[in-house]
Amino acid sequence: MNIQRAEEIVQSPDLVNVTYNGEKIYIQHVDDQNQLARIYPLDNPQKEFDVQIEKLTEE
């Protein structure tokens, strides 16, 4: 995924199907400068972490 698409997903009112390592996730925030996304698994909102945006996949 690219940074622009990740930002569009964050700003979208719709829930977009995005995965990280095969797990469905929610993107909370995009850090343009470091090309990172703050995410959490949909089934575990307490488990927040940062990942490289390029490793996210839109389903």
From TrEMBL:
Coiled-coil regions listed: none
Subcellular location: Spore core
Main location: other
Inducing or repressing factors: Expressed only in the forespore compartment of sporulating cells.
Pfam families linked to this entry: SspH
Domain of life: Bacteria
Keyword entries, A-Z: Sporulation
InterPro entries in alphabetical order: SASP_SspH
NCBIfam families from the UniProt entry: PRK03174.1, SASP_H
Family: Belongs to the SspH family.
Protein name per its UniProtKB record: Small, acid-soluble spore protein H
